[in-house]
Amino acid sequence: MTQLNDKHILLGITGGIAAYKCIELVRRLRDHGAHVRVAMTPAATEFITPLTFQAVSGNRVQTTLLDVDAEAAMGHIELARWADMIVIAPATADFIARLAHGHANDLLSTLCLATAAPICIAPAMNQQMWKAPAVQANCQQVREFGIQIWGPAVGSQACGDVGAGRMLEPAELLQRIQSAFGPLRGKLSGKRVLVTAGPTREDLDPVRFISNRSSGRMGYAVAEAARDAGAEVFLVSGPVNLAAPLGVQLIPAYSAQQMLDAVMAKVQDCDIFISAAAVADYRTAEMATQKIKKKSDEMLIELAKTTDIIAQVAALPKPPFTVGFAAETQAVAAYARDKLERKKLDMIAANLVGVEGTGFDSLENALTVLWKEGEVELARNTKTVLAQQLLELIIARFQVV
Q1: 346 vs 401: CA distance, rounded Å
Q2: Longest pairwise C-alpha distance within the chain
Q3: What is d(CA 210, CA 202) in angstroms, rounded to the nearest whole number?
Q4: 330-344 per-position pLDDT tens digit
Q5: CA-CA distance, 321 to 361, in Å (whole number)?
Q6: Which of residues 17 and 155 earns the better pLDDT score?
Q7: Which SS3 state, helix, strand or coil, does residue 234 take?
Q8: HSE of 9 in the Cβ direction (CA atoms, 13 Å)?
Q9: Is there a contact between 221 and 387 (Cβ–Cβ < 8 Å)?
């Protein structure tokens, strides 16, 4: 028994090369007990045949609005009522524009207007198209209609470009769909959550800086999980190569001081603060105004401590529920509990770094989560899944504090 058991998922496929990935998505959804029906735009059938999706879904695939047999019984209305969720994957720039402007000139756009079910879209397009102001404006509009936007991912594209625009992989889409039916849904409605993510950079001179291996993926996944739980989310992010999560207010920060300033400007209006960023512990005592030249075999650089952001937050007269992160190379639980108690945090999530495949700059992680009265191990998984599991623990503790 899974969260998707007997759920009705209507998968809408539009005209993009990523349509082929949806064969795997249909298979995975059915493996988890979901009933899947597929609606394709005419352009989608140019990339992959309806017969393929009929074979993997076990149901007839709908491709046209004016199907005489189906419409004799108002088939598009029946299908719109049947769905517990509509997932559009891939969602092209053209289809997003039609959603944004309420068009109903094909079966899939009509279904989206005729349904009361939640609608989620997984964009897929060239990276330059994704950045186009018109596309971003359309995304903002559909978001205001209550449509969730999942992705896009960053990476290489069929056209040879590299950047944001790839459709999320079937495994991640499955996780997003499961989460939509999961225990977090609506749990943070009306709450404000502030998350930090990524590294900071401390300049040595105009061309060099001190930083660390943080990719920001864990913090971004936490921000998205909080958003999906219904919270208003603010994400203070260091320099990362990740697409800004839609529906989250992104606040860029470069150095530890900039991140501190951004956090302190927002935190007193927030209910929960989750410090997932890997903030530099030290900065240069004095930054060189010109590039440092190589003159001798050794060079000494004087460093000064940065301000401890999470300690500042926890020391506020009325602090939010404060969650820290601890990246350790040994004695993970012991060091994390010391940090929890010393900084007076409500909760801390600790992980072992320096191990291949988890932690910094990895798609997966494993966490030891501690609070005053206990702790729990979250086994190795994708950072998306771990963020959802962590948020469940945070919500449970937040509600009793």
Answers
A1: 9
A2: 85
A3: 5
A4: 888 888 999 999 999
A5: 27
A6: 17
A7: strand
A8: 34
A9: yes
Q: CA–CA distance from 81 to each of 111, 316, 379 (Å)?
A: 9, 50, 38
**152 cis-preceded (ω within 30 degrees of 0):** yes
CATH class belonging to 8-180: alpha beta
Q: Rounded to an integer, what distance in angstroms lies between the CA atom of residue 351 and that of residue 100?
A: 41
Q: Which of 22, 120, 139, 159 is labelled catalytic? A: 159
> Which residues, including other chains, have CB under 8 Å from residue 344's CB and lie 6 or more apart?
314, 315
Query: Any idea where the domains of the chain sit in the sequence?
Result: 8-180, 192-398
Query: What distance in Å separates the CA atoms of residue 313 and residue 323, rounded to the nearest whole number?
Result: 10
Name the nearest CA neighbour of 277 among 193, 212, 347, 356.
212
Query: Is 139 labeled as catalytic in the residue annotation?
Result: no
pTM score of the predicted model:
0.63
Fold (CATH) for 192-398: Rossmann fold (3.40.50)
14/211 Cα distance (integer angstroms): 42
Tokens found for residue 240: 């990362």
Shortest CA distance to 89 belongs to which of 157, 142, 151, 7?
Answer: 151
